[in-house]
Specification:
Elements: E1 2-7, E2 12-20, E3 26-35, H1 42-60, E4 64-68, H2 76-95, E5 100-103, H3 105-113, H4 120-131, H5 140-156, E6 165-166, H6 170-175, H7 180-191, H8 196-199
Parallel strand pairs: 1-4, 4-5, 5-6
Antiparallel strand pairs: 1-2, 2-3
Helix pairs in contact: 1-2, 3-5, 4-5
Length: 203
């Protein structure tokens, strides 16, 4: 299963692509951080990120897209930028009829490290270990995007699904193509709780 993970952000958008086998073995395909300057107007920043995402989608042709679920923070501007990029990413995925999954940071941390309150350093270290990398992908947005992709593949058992799924919504999970055993595992977990295409995008 090939998954595109996106850590959405208007200034920095982490994008990672991984191939995950049925035995949970994961391999890095690509990782990049798309950037836009703060002095550029928002519509053109969205266009620039969209162009980068489209290039990566067209080159790597993932079977599913995993996004960090937007949640309330004290910084309203950060929320807005994250939500705007999430919308762009979901639109691009929907146009390609790709299933989209939304995962909270704690769900990603739990899947990758076994601890829902792990810090970024711990997540990055585990991503490097899982992918067999000599060093942790930098900056943190890159490692976070790969963690999202791995998390999605592991949580779904390699099933891409057929529609937008919010992993925090039990109804969305039951509506997917997961087996009963996979649904039970997800419910239990919830309760317990760089390629040429990327470099072509101008900063």
């Amino acid at each position: 299963m090939r998954v595109l993970g996106i850590d959405p952000g208007l200034t920095r958008c982490g994008v990672g692509v991984v191939d995950v086998e049925a035995n949970r073995t994961a391999r890095l395909v690509d990782v990049v951080v798309l950037r836009t300057p703060a002095d550029l107007d928002t519509p053109n920043r969205l266009v620039r990120i969209a162009e980068g995402l489209e290039a990566i989608l067209d080159e790597h042709r993932p079977q599913a897209v995993a996004l960090e679920r937007v949640f309330a923070r004290s910084d309203v501007s950060t929320i807005m930028g994250t939500a705007q990029i999430s919308g762009v990413a979901m639109l691009l995925a929907a146009r390609r009829r790709l299933p989209v999954a939304l995962h909270t940071p704690s769900e990603v941390k739990a899947a990758i490290t076994g601890y829902g309150r792990a810090d970024k350093a711990q997540v990055g270290a585990m991503v490097a270990r899982i992918l067999g990398l000599e060093s942790v992908p930098k900056p943190a947005d890159a490692a976070d995007s790969l963690a999202l992709a791995i998390c999605h593949a592991w949580r779904t058992g390699g099933v891409a699904g057929a529609a937008v799924a919010d992993s925090s919504n039990p109804d969305a999970a039951s509506a997917s193509t997961l087996t009963p055993a996979q649904r039970a595992w997800l419910a239990a977990e919830r309760s317990a709780a760089v390629s040429g295409a990327a470099r072509r995008v101008k900063e």
